[in-house]
Fold this sequence. Notes:
4-stranded mixed β-sheet; disordered N terminus
Amino acid sequence: xxxxxxxxxxxxxxxFEDNLEDADFVGExxxxxxxxxxxHAVKCLADGLQACRHRRSISFFSTCPYQIVVE
Length: 71
């Protein structure tokens, strides 16, 4: 799930959460902040690693594809 106002300054969050309602709640809480963010929720470690590999392949200027990882 992506909640985003995509800009170059956006905080990119990889959220490990197996409960869809909890993932939505985190997105709703962040929506109330003044942060510009993009959140990508995954259910398990394997999905998270795949997301990191994919993001790294499209973002060649960064060694860390996500700025924040929430577990």
